[in-house]
Write a structure and sequence with these properties.
Bound molecules: 2-phosphoglycolic acid
Largest sheet: 8 strands, parallel, barrel
Number of domains: 1
CATH architecture: Alpha-Beta Barrel
Helix content: 40-55%
CATH superfamily: Aldolase class I
Distance between the termini: 15 Å
Order of helices and strands: EHEHEHEHHEHHHEHHEHEH
């Protein structure tokens, strides 16, 4: 079902006490000013998943990654099954930092998505073009390829469990946000290719998030766009007030 979602991706930030303080502050601010219709998700580093997933709040927890293997001799890896076993609900898959710094390719990402779904975890699948790909006007081709290569093997039921995050690589952590027109155009395109591959109902029900320097000042204009269902937030999710302001940035009719 299409939902309004704000997911904070904490990346490799925050020591244990800092992470606890931040989540407690977010919980406090949301108690004062609730946003019941918005799905609120935090993706902390792995070692905090167990504790955070057991907190009784309506904030859901996501892992930032999972192994492409099921179990066994893969030192340092964390499986989808382990993530599910501590009560975590979502997993970010295919973030551009994973694709770039850890050489994750379409085949690896397909395996990760399959393992998430087998373990009843909802993947938040990230796609996005580089600046070079956009300046050479290849952004639509790239997005279609990234989506098709790792998700179009899924049947309708499984595809419907995905959340898509469009994150132009040139906007991540750079302070350069896509304009609302650029973001809306791409989200509409993503919905169109989902509709062509599956059907209009599946496309309409798919939550498509925007990520890339989305913050408390620009979230409102982005979230007003008809095909943008929320955001995947990096830097701005590390400040409780900003994160909660972003959660409250949907037009009232939508939130
Ligand atoms: P940013 O990161 O908001 O800091 O640009 C977004 C992301 O990487 O998901």
């Amino acid at each position: 079902m299409r939902k309004k979602i704000v997911c904070g991706n904490w990346k490799m930030n925050l020591l244990n006490s800092e992470a606890i303080n931040l989540v407690e502050k977010i919980i406090f601010l949301l108690k004062e000013n609730p946003a019941p219709k918005i799905e609120k998700i935090i993706a902390p580093p792995f070692i905090y998943l167990n504790e955070f997933s057991k907190k009784s709040t309506d904030i859901k927890i996501a892992a930032q990654n999972c192994s492409s293997e099921n179990n066994g001799a893969f030192t340092g890896e964390i499986s989808a099954k382990m993530i599910a076993s501590v009560g975590t609900k979502y997993v970010i898959i295919g973030h551009s930092e994973r694709r770039n710094y850890f050489s994750e390719d379409a085949n690896t990402l397909t395996k990760k998505i399959n393992l998430c779904l087998e373990n009843k975890l909802q993947p938040i699948f990230c796609i996005g073009e580089t600046l070079e790909q956009r300046t050479s006007n290849n952004q639509f081709k790239i997005i279609k390829t990234q989506l098709a290569e790792s998700t179009f093997h899924l049947n309708e039921t499984d595809f419907s469990k995905l959340i898509i995050a469009y994150e132009p690589v040139w906007a991540i952590g750079t302070g350069k946000t896509a304009t609302k027109d650029q973001a809306q155009e791409m989200h509409q395109f993503i919905r169109k290719i989902i509709s062509e591959k599956y059907n209009a109902e599946i496309a309409q029900n798919c939550s498509i998030l925007y990520g890339g320097s989305c913050n408390a000042s620009n979230a409102k204009e982005l979230f007003e766009c008809p095909d943008i269902d929320g955001g995947l937030i990096g830097g701005a999710s590390l400040k409780a007030e900003d994160f909660v302001r972003i959660i409250h940035s949907f037009p009232t009719t939508k939130s």
